[in-house]
Amino acid sequence: MKQNRKDFLKTSGIIAAGSIASAFPASFFAKSIIKSKGSKMKFTFKPYTLELKHVFTVAVSSRTTTPVMLTEIEYEGIKGYGEASMPPYLGESQETATAFLSKVNLEQFNDPFEIEKILDYVDSIAEKNTAAKASVDIALHDLVGKLMKQPWYKIWGYDKTATPNTTFTIGIDTPDVVRQKVKEASEFKLLKVKLGKGNDKEMIETIRSVTDVPLTADANQGWKDKQYAMDMINWLSEKNVLYVEQPMPKEMVDENAWLTQNSPLPILGDESIQRLSDLIKMKDVYSGVVIKLMKCTGMREANKMLNLARSLNMKVMIGCMTETSCAISAASQLSPMVDWADLDGALLIKNDPYEGMKVVDGKVTLTEYPGIGLKS
Ligand code: MG
Fold first, then answer.
1. Which residues, listed in sequence order, are joined to residue 363 by a DSSP beta bridge?
2. Residue 20 C-alpha to ligand 1 middle, in angstroms?
3. CA distance 87 to 60
4. How far apart are CA 323 and CA 352, in angstroms?
5. Which architecture characterizes domain 154-365 according to CATH?
6. Does pTM top 0.90 for this prediction?
7. Distance of alpha carbon 77 from its chain centroid, rounded?
């Protein structure tokens, strides 16, 4: 009877654990088990300073460098790369990231494919620290994609050819400098304009004196009066502006909701919507969301926000900080599913240590490299 069953398993191709064991010596299994238990993820990080090509001015500050942390997770000889970009006004720094990342112990996990479990743990280490958390998330996604030998847009099932054009940001400056920057940006099909410094109409008129390309506007919470904001949005809608980001301070929820209800243009929440839980709260306040890996702890949560926003019929823009091609390439994996992209961050820096997603003729162009798409 026993013999018959064994023959059946053999001929039918069904292999039971017992029959494998009988085919190999016990020492073989002992070695395999030890090897898989001995494989640990090694996590390392180092500070790096991005040097900007131009002084970067938004409604609240100006600067010429951006501090980042570069991270690595090594597993069975394969390295995944990550990054935290920390513009000073967002509250993280190389010091806070060092303190946070020093607590991250990935050696307790044997299987890098347990992304949800690992990143739930990383998220639970401390509140906030969203960029530092993203640097672990991105490195883990890069590693897992490399282990699968596939880029994430493919793993998620997104269409590589459906990527959008990226905007290129024209910072607030004097009319002469603005005109010069616009001329240098002739490759781009969309320009993003930073507003909210009191010279809004002058900025737009200056750009319109040299180009007719569609514009997007980001007030960065700079408008404090709702009627002024409404008048500006109406005026912008006649200047071929496609949408407005964060018109008023995030605390002014009712005013932002009123603008959304009355605006001829989509109104996107950026500073108001950091993470998935904010998107749920703000779904009726804005008609769209700006998703950034550094705000939402990385690719895992960004993809959840993207899919939730889609199901709520909200517009989606994927944005960035000034970042290397590492974080930009990670964000670009989601870009086939968005309405708009603002992924110019790596183009603004002089010392990018990575090569990944390229902007070709103004369009986000994904690579075939596995993981987050970096050339290694
Ligand atoms: Mg913004």
1. 165, 360
2. 58
3. 12
4. 8
5. Alpha-Beta Barrel (3.20)
6. no
7. 26
Q: Average pLDDT, stretch 161-186?
A: 93
Q: What CA–CA distance (Å, rounded) separates 130 from 134?
A: 6
CB of 283 within 8 A of CB of 273?
no
Q: For residue 4, name the pLDDT band (cuts at 50, 70, 90).
A: very low
* Cα(192) to centroid(ligand 1), Å: 10
For residue 273, what are its two tokens?
A: 């919507």
Question: 4 burial class (0-12, 13-18, 19+ CB within 10 angstroms)?
Answer: exposed
Q: Where are the alpha helices (DSSP H) in the chain?
A: 2-12, 17-23, 26-38, 94-101, 115-124, 130-148, 152-155, 175-184, 200-208, 226-237, 253-262, 276-281, 293-296, 299-311, 325-332
* CATH class assigned to 39-149: alpha beta
AA identity, residue 360:
V
* One-letter identity of residue 200: D
CA dist list (Å): 225 to 26, 183, 196, 235, 338: 76, 33, 11, 15, 30
- In this structure, are residues 83 and 71 in contact, taking their beta carbons and an 8 Å threshold? yes
Query: What is the Å distance from ligand 1's center to 218 Cα?
Result: 5
| Residue 91: C-alpha distances to residues 57, 87, 129, 295 (Å) | 17, 8, 9, 11
What are the boundaries of each domain within the chain?
39-149, 154-365
Average pLDDT of the residues in 266-278:
98
Ligand 1 centre distance from Cα of residue 322 (Å): 12
- Expressed in angstroms and rounded, the spacing between residue 270 Cα and the centre of ligand 1 is 5
Question: What tens digit of pLDDT does each residue of 182-238 get?
Answer: 999 999 999 999 999 889 999 999 999 999 999 999 999 999 999 999 999 999 999
Q: 3-state SS of 174-242?
A: CHHHHHHHHHHCCCCCEEEEECCCCCHHHHHHHHHCCCCCCEEEECCCCCCCHHHHHHHHHHHHCCCEE
